[in-house]
Amino acid sequence: MVIMTTASSHSFEPVLARIAEEIERTPGRGRPADYIPALAACDPRRFGMAVAELDGTVYGVGDWREPFSTQSITKVFTLALDLAREGDALWEHVGREPSGNPFNSLVQLEYENGIPRNPFINAGALVVTDRLQTRSSDASGELLAFLRAESGNPALDFDQDVAASESAHGDRNAALAHFMASYGNIDNPVPVLLDQYFRQCSVMASCADLALAIGFLARHGIRADGDRLLSQSQAKQVNAVMLTCGTYDAAGDFAYRVGLPGKSGVGGGIIAVVPGRCTLCVWSPGLDERGNSVAGVAALDRFTTLTGLSVF
Ligand code: GLU
């Protein structure tokens, strides 16, 4: 018997073109995040998608080279950078269970003594950035250097206006940080941590940049230059936490539809990993009610359906 697979080794371009065409014809894109003006101003009809192979070959369609606000997507990178430095000790300070609550919720923290459920809700990401800050003394700088190196794009940068705007609307993140500090789960002064976190969220990058930058998770922990960032087992762990906690309070639905580890951000981007095969990034700023890009999830759903490339 000959087993046929649609997961061929040739160019991803035809499948990307087909997905872009389907998305173009689909009405209803959701609404851009409106908690800061820079995000609210985005056109929900924008759409881009990129696929990167393990060797750094990258394919794209639509606005795939347009920089957008990465926001919570950066939480995957700070998690990997901190895990690489401190290993399992991190898990004494943050859990790895889905929260079942909105990403910026305070309630669960009190029941659970200041230990956030996972590294991808805001409380958990603040803990990770705090720990990376302690170890590197410039968490957001380390993140930016890593993204530049892995994407091969030295022009990647923070957006100072977005960072300032996050800060001006940052009362809830400040509350989360102070609350965890009261349990002894934050090392750095809260203003220092918040400054780092808001800078982190403000990084601008394109689908091409992010698909390349997340390649180490498809290469089982190996960076673009061949150096190892994470052990194979740590790369598996990060992928697993993305699958179960990476798309806000909709990770079950995302796993059902897409079948890949993924992480979304309120800027409308989503990264996804096919371990051992390729990485993806899709961007469209219109969000659904749970904070995930409407066209982004739809496009990833079509990609795994059309190619058969998923972890299941
Ligand atoms: N800067 C946002 C916040 O901390 C990130 C939100 C997100 O992308 O989930 O509120």
TrEMBL record:
Amino-acid positions noted as binding substrate in the UniProt annotation, renumbered to this chain: S72, N122, E166, N173, Y197, Y248, V266
EC class (word): hydrolase
GO MF entries: glutaminase activity
Enzyme Commission code: 3.5.1.2
Catalysed reactions, semicolon-separated: L-glutamine + H2O = L-glutamate + NH4(+)
InterPro entries: Beta-lactam/transpept-like, Glutaminase
Residue ranges of coiled coil: none
Keywords: Acetylation, Hydrolase
Subunit structure: Homotetramer.
Sequence similarity: Belongs to the glutaminase family.
Name of the molecule in the record: Glutaminase
Organism: Streptomyces spinosisporus
Taxonomic lineage of the native organism: Bacteria, Bacillati, Actinomycetota, Actinomycetes, Kitasatosporales
Encoding gene per record: glsA
